[in-house]
Write a structure and sequence with these properties.
The complex is a heterodimer.
Chain A (H helix, E strand, L loop, with lengths): L13 H14 L8 E2 L2 H8 L3 H13 L3 E4 L3 E4 L5 H23 L4 H19 L1
Antiparallel strand pairs in A: 1-3, 2-3
Helix pairs in contact in A: 1-3
Chain B lengths: L2 E12 L2 E12 L3 E5 L6 H8 L7 E6 L11 E4 L11 H11 L5 H10 L13 H13 L5 E5 L7 H17 L3 E5 L3 H7 L2 E6 L2 E7 H7 E7 L6 H4 L2 E7 L3 E7 L10 E4 L2 H9 L8 H6 L3
Parallel strand pairs in B: 3-7, 3-8, 5-6, 6-7
Antiparallel strand pairs in B: 1-2, 1-4, 8-9, 10-12, 10-13, 11-12
Helix pairs in contact in B: 3-4, 4-5
The chains are: A mainly alpha, B alpha/beta.
């Protein structure tokens, strides 16, 4: 079962944080098809957040087809996200590590790495959009 | 959209002092609403008008489609500092609640008392601040109101007691279909539990809207300094602007994404947005602005 948390400082709406955590857990293979998500009440009791926020996140996930709500039983993972991508992750991670080594050797600090990655990532996404 | 609270040109004066001036609001049902503003902005006055403890000087207020009447079974109210009867025990509070409220739900009351770890035989005067706040909440919620009004319920509590109180409150909201309006200036709490916000500044409504919409539509823009920025041509509303010799920093509201590449656009968290509205440089609210946020 997934354990949600909230980052109050992120500027990301709480319902979106919950959605991202489910997607993230799916991508990393922490959640699988058929797994049950905590009930709205369980999340509310644990995080002290608005029940509407949890319902909204679950509705959105259902709309995306990632989960299905079964009356009286709970909300269940309906499909696994990017099955093949999970397998490719290890090799991608190794390439990224190699790149990080090169960036360090070229003299980039943490902030420099982050800035370069984000600006490249942004330009890349925009070009593809 | 059904309204839980509707105010039109609502004004309240105490002698010469104006506590609320020309407030127009339409709060949809089914939300947990945060009421924010500096001290003296009129938060308590608005809550007391909403539960019928005060009469407006001018304008109209409607709660659940009716003029507010003090003691209504449909509206629960917990005043500042969670007042309880010091000489009565926890159990006596519940008996009193049951006697005074025809709609009293003793199952909920007893369950909640047990869950909060309150000893029924304890005198309320001997309870800690957090326990007292929980007792006041349970008494207000056990009559199953459609609207629960809370005036700074957690201001005096330590972080752990605050979290426990908010957990209890959110569980009540999950169980009962209840709208909550709660004043507070603890933004981290508001961000956690509220899905709708009302910002009062200087007796007036400066901002009202769904939290997700507010977060999505406010941006911080940083770029090279410019002398004049015609934000209206981009369809932005300027909330705040700061300039140094080299740089301009704006807080703008825009429902469309910011696609001008000469600005670096960042997301704001709720605290940044509130501070921008509460700061002196923010322009006063116009009725259109208030209404615009309610779509």
């Amino acid at each position: 079962m997934i354990d949600f948390y909230l980052n109050a400082k992120s500027g990301v709406a709480p319902y979106m944080q919950l959605i991202q955590q489910v997607r993230h857990a799916l991508r990393l293979g922490v959640l699988h098809e058929g797994d049950r998500l905590p009930t709205v009440r369980e999340v509310v009791a644990r995080l002290a957040i608005n029940p509407n926020t949890v319902s909204k996140a679950y509705r959105e996930l259902e709309y995306e087809g990632l989960v299905t709500a079964r009356q009286g039983l709970g909300t269940f993972i309906a499909k696994t996200l990017d099955g093949p991508a999970v397998a490719a992750q290890e090799s991608l991670r190794q390439k990224l590590e190699q790149w990080l080594v090169e960036a360090r050797e070229a003299g980039l600090d943490d902030e420099g790495v982050e800035a370069l990655f984000l600006s490249t990532f942004r330009a890349f996404s925009e070009a593809r959009a | 959209m059904t309204s839980v609270l509707r105010a039109e040109n609502l004004t309240k004066r105490y002698g010469r002092r104006t506590a609320l001036s020309g407030c127009t609001l339409d709060v949809p049902v089914g939300h947990v609403v945060g009421l924010v503003g500096p001290n003296g902005a009129g938060k308590s006055t608005l809550l007391q008008l909403a539960c019928g403890l005060l009469e407006p000087t001018a304008g109209v207020i409607e709660v659940l489609g009716e003029r507010p009447v003090s003691g209504s079974a449909r509206v629960g109210f917990v005043a500042q500092d969670a007042p309880v009867y010091a000489g009565l025990t926890v159990a006596e509070h519940l008996r009193l609640g049951a006697r005074l409220n025809p709609s009293w739900d003793s199952t909920i009351a007893e369950q909640r008392i047990a869950q909060a770890g309150l000893d029924p035989s304890q005198k309320a005067g001997k309870l800690s601040g957090g326990q007292r706040a929980n007792l006041a909440l349970i008494v207000a919620a056990a009559k199953r109101p459609e609207l629960l009004l809370l005036d700074e319920p957690v201001a005096a509590l330590d972080p752990l007691a605050r979290r426990l109180f908010l957990q209890a409150l959110m569980e009540l909201v999950a169980e009962q279909e209840m709208t909550v309006i709660m004043s507070s200036h603890l933004v981290s709490d508001l961000q956690r539990i509220c899905d709708h916000l009302i910002v009062l500044v200087g007796s007036q409504v400066r901002l009202a809207g769904d939290v997700d919409d507010l977060l999505a539509s406010h941006h911080r823009l940083t770029g090279p300094r410019r002398e004049s920025i015609d934000v209206a041509t981009f369809g932005w509303t300027l909330i705040e602007d700061r300039h140094t010799a080299a740089q301009s920093t704006l807080v703008v509201r825009s429902t469309a994404p910011i696609d001008d590449p000469s600005w670096q656009a960042d997301q704001l968290d709720l605290e940044d947005i509130l501070l921008a509205y509460l700061s002196e440089s923010a322009p006063a609210a116009t009725p259109e602005r208030v209404l615009e946020t309610q779509r």
